[in-house]
Amino acid sequence: MTASNTATKAHEAHAAPAAPECDQVATQGAAERDPRIARSRAALREAFITLVEERGIDGFSVGDLCTSAGLNRGTFYNHFRDKESLLASFEDEVIEGLGGVLAKFQNIKLRELAACSLTHRPLPMLVELYDYLREEGPFLHAMLGPGGDARFGMRLREAVCGRFVRSLLHERYQNDPSAFTRYYISFYSGAYLGVISEWIDSGMTETSEEMALISMRLLFIKPGESIKM
């Protein structure tokens, strides 16, 4: 190999850090095992949210992100291939957390929800869901906003709204492939994503209990009926 080729390969190695086979910071488990990783991840997350809000998701580089987070690029590339893998890690973390909350909806019955609605009692599981959404409010606001990731909105619609609506259906309809069932789920999923987006965008002024009651009321309201709580 010539000296020129050696120099070229060395330059390429420094210019493009090798992508690790596994993103070590991509899971909460890694952060829990090493406080330094947890701090780096938290700094990257905060910086990422700030930059998305200020410039949009395509308006900043890894260098900008590292500068804002107070980290060097080497630390970033030790754990992530690129900005997209970092974003995927954050989004997966939120969806996974929501999955844990929504797992409790599996055995809920529509009559149980109706009983709570009639007595104006918020369904505890819905309160917990809104509690979690509030915790993730800054990230959700950035991702669902004009500069965020449109694909994440679709994931949220399916992972949260679609799963919630499907859990309320009678067993015979939960896996029903008919057109009406599909559109029923799509209709209510889109509606509930709109509710969540409006709540987050308006500053989450309503409590989780209030949002649970609103969500329940919206499910049972009929055309022409009073829209008051």
Can you describe what's shown?
- The protein is mainly alpha-helical.
Uncertain regions spanning at least 5 consecutive residues: 1-28
User: Kindly state the mean pLDDT as a whole number?
Assistant: 82
**Helix/strand/pairing category:** mainly alpha
Tell me how many strands there are: 0
Residues in helix, % = over 70%
Question: Could you write a compact summary of the structure shown?
Answer:
With 229 residues, the protein is an all-alpha fold.
For the structure shown, list the relevant keywords.
229 residues, mainly alpha, 13 helices
List the helices and strands and how they pair.
Blueprint: H1 3-15, H2 28-33, H3 35-55, H4 62-69, H5 73-79, H6 83-102, H7 110-118, H8 124-135, H9 137-144, H10 150-168, H11 171-174, H12 179-201, H13 208-220
Helix pairs in contact: 3-4, 3-9, 6-8, 6-10, 7-13, 8-13, 10-12
